[in-house]
Amino acid sequence: MSLRSLSVRALPGVGPQKERALEALGIQTVDDLLHTYPFRYDERLEKPFPEWRDGDRVTARAIVEGPVQVRWRGSKSIMTARVRVDGQHPVICLWFSQHYLRAKLSDGRFIVVTGKWNESLRRLVVSETSFDTGASPTSLVPVYRASKEISTKAIHQLILKALEQYGDQIAESLPYALARKYKLWSHREALVGIHRPQSREDVRQARRRLVFEEFLLFQIQLQWLRARREQPSGRAQPVPDDALAAFEALLPGPMTAAQRRACEDILRDLQRPAPMARLIQGDVGSGKTWVALFACYAVHMAHGQSALMAPTEILAEQHARLARQLLEPAGVRVELLTGSVTGRERDRVLSGLASGEVSLAVGTHALLSDGVEFRDLALLVTDEQHRFGVAQRAKLREKGRAPDVLMLSATPIPRTLALAIYGDMDVSVLDELPKGRRPIQTIAVPAQDDEAALRLIRRELARGHQAYIVAPAIEASDRDDVTSITELYGRVAEHLAGFRVELLHGRMSTADKERMMREFRDGAVAALVATTVIEVGIDVPNATVMAIYGAERFGLAQLHQLRGRVGRGPHQSYCVLVHEASTEAARARIETMLQTTDGFEIAERDLELRGPGELFGLKQSGLPEFALGDLARDYRIMEVAREEASHLVQRDDFWYAPWAEGLREALKEAVDKVSYRD
């Protein structure tokens, strides 16, 4: 039986209770257990007793002297024993809630203890006790993510049992030539090295092998998806070659070179028989909407229909307004379809979509509703694509015949992560801003001097402009976001007396949030005190100040996104970072914001400072989650894995030759078990 289907119940000591505890951690089979990796190692180096200092965590060999005593405080036990460290130094050891060790701690027993030393009481509070006194004096002890029901030590002991009992059944997945090329350990050696290391070098070599395999399997999936997409299963759209020139004539100003390159990429994609799958990745304010509307215009010229899906009604309204302004003079019928469009208006829009009279439908998830039928949906555009799940995009795609797909993202992503997330897509980057945009002035203000920020805001409001004031990011265990923002609102409203100041936060209903954003957009509200719900928001050219309180609590990428809410009009705009940066990392983030407005440079720096998990939030952004690999730390391995995956997928014999059987099996298991996509 394969270890992938062998239950953990096959291991000695695993009964129903322990099985349930392991299952709660996602461990059901022996294979799951062997591939549950430590998140750190405790290094236990024996130190001679004379070198112990108060508060040190120490490991020592000792001999138990005399009887062990156990006292109880309610349901908790305190166990004490006198031991002689290194055979000569008397020490009192304390064990909390470990009374089950009492029978083993017999007089004269040799033990190895690890704990915290209290110099004044000459006591060692023991956290780990080993009866294997033959262990190496320097040992790395793996620490696993555990639970109340099962400890990290219990997980480690089960893994060691599994290695002992089933180690010879661990399958090798990498082709021999590939492992030899990169001097990689076997899969079995790597698992032994990661769970039972003798040195830091063992851990390094084990990680290197296992991370490469994990990344390779992921990249093979992406490359296979790309290869399937590039087969001519779609249709070439008969877009005229002069479509871009005709579109530019509709615009109120010139395109940037980056916008033009992206439009040319789209034009080539549309004219090919393979379905387009392209991401337009651009910094805030780089003009992604014009590029998206060019794609819709080009499809209209080819007599097809387009759908542009936005995450909120107010964004959908904004896109529809711009689309009508630019495209309706050229005969493109644009309609808006959101949850607020009901009754006869909805029937009219649906009728136009079904007949083909509507060339472009702009909307929210309402476009996915039953009853929304297109005559010929040829292009699907999703704005802020990470806000829509794969299932939602697939449902809209099913409303057409293999439509071309264009995704927009205002989150600049470092090349390393772009390879990981969008390896199955083509990417166009908008890396310049339209001419005439004034650079946003970024100012850092210590929290105790926030009146300087409030004076700047009041000055801008007096000039007829508007301002966003963002409340600090709140830790879930700390306080409620509504409490925090209410306190800030009171302070701001007092200093901005005479101007209309309103609240916007995540606990408000969707309808109330959209109403408030509309009032701000229309100029009825002068200052909006908000949580980060305005991070991806509407275009308000009259907003000239973004004040971010608790700026040290935000990541660089999020600070940059917030800053991009202003600077969209002809007026000088400001971003004020009100902070209490007490750590080196927090100060580094504030300093980076003062030094550059380049979103890609900021994203690279954020990756260095915080890592990919914190960069955007894994679940939100669609970043893949890996069991062991770290996209920031292991990006070179990812690049090598991508190259090798590309070569493998292009080989016809990869799908049937014996040399790749192990890799195919591992790939099948990965596809069946985990979806790395968002």
Descriptive account of the structure:
The structure is a single chain. This protein has 678 residues and is of the alpha/beta class. The chain has 22 helices and 20 strands. The strands form four sheets. A seven-stranded parallel β-sheet has the order 10-11-9-12-13-8-14, sandwiched between helices. The longest helix is centred in the N-terminal third of the chain and has 30 residues, at 200-229. Mean pLDDT is 85; it is low at 386-390, 475-481, 613-622 and 674-678.
Which keywords apply here?
678 residues; alpha/beta; OB fold (Dihydrolipoamide Acetyltransferase, E2P); Rossmann fold; 7-stranded parallel sheet; 6-stranded parallel sheet; 22 helices; 39% helix; globular
TL;DR?
The chain is 39% helix and 19% strand. The chain has a 7-stranded parallel beta sheet with strand order 10-11-9-12-13-8-14, with helices on both faces. The chain has a 6-stranded parallel beta sheet with strand order 15-20-19-16-18-17, sandwiched between helices.
